[in-house]
Every structure is written in C-alpha cells, then in structure tokens.
Amino acid sequence: MRDLRRKLKGGIPYLLYCIAEFWKIKKVVLVSLDWERKLLGFLPRPTYKHRRSYQTVTAKYDRIAMR
C-alpha cells in the first residue's frame, strides 16, 4: 500500500504539470489531424498552425507592461 501511495504522490503532480503544458501549447498552436496523409499507413498525421490571435493579445499586454 505504501508503494502505491508513493507512486501517486509523484505521479499526480507530474500529470497536472503535463496537462497545464498541453493547455499552453493548445492556446498558441492550432493542432489538427490530417486523415488523408497517414503515418505508418494507419496513424493520422498531426498538423500545426500558429494562432495569430494569440499574438495580438500578448502584444497588447506586452505594450502595457513596458510602460
């Protein structure tokens, strides 16, 4: 039982960290799956596209911070 608690103590914060990092990535990059072009013949290929709207929001706050 102690081993299970030790594993959960180490794993849960790491899981939360990973979720937060993926959320940040999804906020900046639009990720979609291309079902026409497949990897290894059966996996959909991920495509990435930069979100321009995120740049304008952060640029606004950058200007405010630099005053």
Task: Provide an overview of this structure.
- The protein has helices at 2-28, 52-65; strands spanning 29-39, 43-50.
- Strands 1-2 form a two-stranded antiparallel ribbon.
- By secondary structure, it is of the alpha+beta class.
- The mean pLDDT is 78.
Give me the strand/helix succession: HEEH
Overall geometry? flat
Distance N terminus to C terminus? Answer: 55 Å
Major β-sheet, in short? Answer: 2 strands, antiparallel
Mean pLDDT: 78
What percentage of the residues does DSSP assign to strands (E)? 25-35%
Radius of gyration: 19 Å
Structural class: alpha+beta
**Order of strands, widest sheet:** 1-2
Q: What portion of residues is helical? A: 55-70%
The number of domains is 1
Number of alpha- plus pi-helical segments: 2
Q: Which helices and strands occur, and which strands form pairs?
A:
Blueprint lengths: L1 H27 E11 L3 E8 L1 H14 L2
Antiparallel strand pairs: 1-2
